[in-house]
Amino acid sequence: MKRIGVADVADSPEEWEVVASFDRFESKIISVRTDRVRMPLDDTADRDYVTHPGSVAVLALDEHERVLMLRQYRHPVRGMLWELPAGIRDVSGEPTWLTAARELAEEAAYRATTWHTLVDLYSSPGMTNERIRVFLARGLTEIPESERDFEHHHEEIGMPVVWVPLAEAVGKVQSGMIHNSPAVAGILAAYAASADGFASLRPADAPEA
């Protein structure tokens, strides 16, 4: 087994040979595909996965170090989940931080003056290529009622908004009270980043590796 040093622990792009590919299902947002992939020792194996355009999420932190959280019904898991404002990358060519700013405005009616990249993650890399960038948004102001022109539909109707102290949000993650993956990752990353006053965070337009 090859020895790997700590300095080498970093994800890297790599693509194994696909000898055949089959489209199984396609919808407005996602599709399901089977790739026959060449494995070590010249073996092949079928790998089923969901293709996804990617998502963004926003950890909005106010001057009291409270996190803005929403509760939304998620049908696949049959639950009401506490989450961060988030959405799909559904505007071609739009910078991800602008997508995040739009989602923060539409879902929570807030604007932010300061944006940083908080954490990047794949939601479930064994079954989907969805990648999520979570942003830290600060310098928050509420959008006046007269300027709100977004109409909520379906699960977004009547979503409650709660401000949770960051340290308490960490406790809720650790006790299994919060399950949404970008919320969990964002809360823990923000808590870690707060140790140096968020000075080590990447800029909002940092490239995705």
Mean pLDDT: 94
Q: Give the count of helical stretches.
A: 3
Kindly state the percentage of residues in helix. 10-25%
Instruction: Please write the string of helix (H) and strand (E) elements.
Output: EEEEEEEHEEEHHE
Radius of gyration over all CA atoms, rounded: 19 Å
End-to-end separation in angstroms reads: 27 Å
- What structural category characterises the helix and strand content? alpha+beta
Task: Describe the overall structure.
- With 209 residues, the protein is α+β, with helices and mostly antiparallel strands.
- Strands 7-4-9-8-11 form a 5-stranded mixed β-sheet.
- Helix 2 packs across helix 3.
- The chain has 3 helices and 11 strands; from the N terminus they run E-E-E-E-E-E-E-H-E-E-E-H-H-E.
- The longest helix has 13 residues.
- The mean pLDDT is 94.
- Helix content is 17%, strand content 38%.
- A hairpin with a 4-residue loop joins strand 1 and strand 2.
- It starts with 17 loop residues before the first strand and ends in a 6-residue tail after the last strand.
Brief digest:
This protein is an alpha+beta fold. The chain has helices at 96-108, 166-174, 181-193, and strands at residues 18-26, 31-38, 44-51, 55-60, 66-74, 79-83, 86-88, 110-122, 131-142, 161-165, 202-203.
